[in-house]
Design goal:
heterodimer, A: mainly alpha, Cytochrome C Oxidase, Chain A, B: Four Helix Bundle (Hemerythrin (Met), subunit A), 5 helices
């Protein structure tokens, strides 16, 4: 009989996911510092400083956590083992950090060659990950609910990389024309076709399991991901079609984007409804983060319809849309998950190592001792304040440096919580050593 | 005929319900009610573990020709859960809410990632191995 490649025991070393997850809040803080130093970046959506800030958040925070989490969760979710986890983790980590810093530095210093270099390194690092995950997911025999969404997200990842590489080349060489519609597509694929698609797929598992809610409707699991994917494909095809024929495609694109935003709103509403039906009544920081994040997603959908419905001068509204989706929706959901993943991994690795050294009399700190609730709650409040201030500062310009400062503080607080939790691993092991 | 995955899934859900009831009672500081729910949770969890450790896993180990594979990991996680459940008892005696909820948070995540691995990968795999013997296997588990 054909045996599935089962690898339940393949927990990679703690450092594999942790280096990514612990670096993420520092890179987000760097985005805060950039906004603080270049407050005028908020005047224009495609200003170089705004592009630097966006990439520090999307690649530096969102991408980093996703890459770390995928290496941890992949063996469990799709049941396929990844070879040489430490070597590849370090390689990809080095590439991502060097890539994102060069790219953003290049934007800020207006150095086309540095932008190209950073873009190329980033593209290669992501491609390296893509090949590893892609070959695993297509071999997987885990149930289709998980693998199908993963496959779509990986195609989204591939298109994001391809568009990104083209744009980086266009910045570097004057022979390659830079088209704004490709920037739009790069953004949409990265956020809604890759990160968002992964979040939706992972939600199907994570929400019912860890928030103890009823399951998502099977019809939604079957149709939502593919609908979002198909609408993105059609948006891409339409943009290219109208670009080649030289027309402007406002109406057609809006109609397709409507499908996209309806899909995401549907996801938000169903998830919030499931959370209302949860059996567990214990206050939970992850749940608080998710509720806020999903509300931001709904607010973004509302703003999108305002922009398309009224066609007023919408530069600031479009910026608000980006803030709500990146910082409000995706960063909130990811941060909520970090508050579960990191303390659990620290606990798990402590349990495994102390178990082996047979020193059972030592009490292993539980998850809430590794990251105290009080600190997580305070950090959540700071995040709420940061998102509100950033949104207000889009209209009240002099608030930009202040909002940037609070955002930076919120991320440094997050870094403090996560790093302190991770350090408890070493401390506890030291205590466990026989004197 | 009952499906193995569904049969085991229903057990997980029952234990989850008892677990959440216990946690909810702890948040409301209803210690005497918690005591009886907790005892029931421990009993049901041990019963479920026994079904796996004494019937289901040996079946899988026999067909795989090895007991060092995924079932070994599952057995180890059972021990880790037993240790955490063991921590809970004195905390109920002392009516230590913060300590209790800290341990249950950890137990919940451990338990759910364990269930996820079983439901996604292990049970479907054992289901394929057991094949036509399904009724006998379920009878053996019921007989415990």
């Amino acid at each position: 009989m054909d045996q599935p490649a089962l690898s339940l025991e393949q927990t990679p070393p703690l450092s594999v996911p942790l280096i990514f997850m612990l670096s993420a809040p520092f890179l987000a803080a760097l985005a805060g510092i950039t906004a603080f130093v270049y407050p005028e970046s908020f005047d224009e959506r495609w200003s170089p400083a705004m592009l630097a800030i966006t990439h520090l958040l999307t690649v530096g925070f969102i991408g980093m956590v996703i890459v770390g989490a995928l290496q941890q969760l992949f063996p469990v979710l799709v049941g396929v083992r990844l070879s040489h986890p430490v070597f590849f983790s370090r390689l990809i980590y080095g590439g991502l950090v060097m890539g994102v810093l060069s790219l953003c530095g290049g934007f800020l210093m207006v150095q086309p060659k540095v932008i190209g270099f950073g873009g190329a390194i980033l593209g290669l690092s992501f491609l390296c990950l893509l090949v590893r995950l892609g070959s695993a997911v297509f071999k997987s025999k885990a149930i289709a609910n998980v693998t199908k969404g993963m496959k779509l997200a990986l195609v989204g990842m591939l298109l994001t990389i391809a568009l990104g590489l083209y744009l980086a080349a266009a910045y570097t060489s004057s022979d390659i024309p830079l088209h704004r519609f490709m920037t739009e597509l790069h953004f949409q694929w990265g956020i809604l076709g890759w990160a968002g698609m992964l979040i939706i797929t992972v939600s199907y598992q994570v929400v019912p399991m860890f928030q103890v809610t009823p399951k998502y409707p099977q019809k939604m699991i079957t149709w939502l991901g593919p609908s979002i994917f198909v609408s993105l494909i059609m948006i891409t095809a339409t943009r290219f079609w109208f670009f080649l024929s030289g027309d402007v495609a406002t109406y057609e694109i809006s109609a397709l984007e409507l499908v996209l935003f309806c899909g995401y709103s549907f996801y938000a509403i169903v998830t919030m409804r499931l959370q209302l039906q949860r059996r567990r009544k214990v206050p939970d920081i992850t749940l608080a983060y998710w509720r806020f994040g999903l509300s931001c997603l709904l607010a973004a959908a509302l703003i999108w319809s305002l922009v398309k419905g009224t066609l007023i001068d919408h530069q600031q509204l479009e910026l608000a849309l980006g803030v709500l989706i990146i910082v409000g929706f995706i960063m909130s959901l990811i941060t909520g998950m970090l508050y579960k993943i990191i303390p659990f991994l620290v606990w798990l690795h402590l349990t495994n190592s102390i178990d082996m050294s047979a020193r059972w009399e030592l009490k292993i700190p539980n998850m809430k001792e590794i990251i105290p609730d009080r600190h997580a709650r305070n950090q959540f409040r700071l995040h709420l304040l940061a998102v509100s201030l950033i949104l207000i500062s889009l209209l009240v310009k002099w608030l930009v440096p202040f909002a940037a400062g609070v955002f930076m503080a919120s991320n440094l607080y997050l870094a403090f919580n996560l790093v302190r939790g991770a350090l408890m691993y070493g401390h506890t092991l030291q205590q466990a050593q026989p004197a | 005929m009952t499906n193995l995955v569904e049969y085991m899934l229903a057990e997980h859900e029952y234990c989850n319900d008892l677990f959440c009831d216990g946690e909810n009672l702890a948040t409301e500081s209803k210690w005497s009610e918690l005591k009886s729910v907790f005892e029931k949770f421990v009993m049901e969890t041990e019963k479920h573990f026994a079904k796996e450790e004494k019937v289901l896993f040996p079946h899988a180990e026999q067909s795989m020709g090895s007991d060092a594979g995924p079932t070994a990991v599952m057995r180890m996680e059972h021990e880790q859960m037993r240790a955490l459940i063991g921590n809970l008892k004195p905390l109920i005696e002392k009516e230590n809410k913060e300590g209790f909820l800290g341990e249950t948070e950890t137990l919940l995540v451990l338990m759910q990632q364990h269930n996820m691995k079983e439901e996604q990968i292990l049970y479907p795999m054992i289901d394929r191995m057991v094949g036509a013997n399904l009724a006998a296997v379920i009878d053996a588990m019921e007989a415990l």
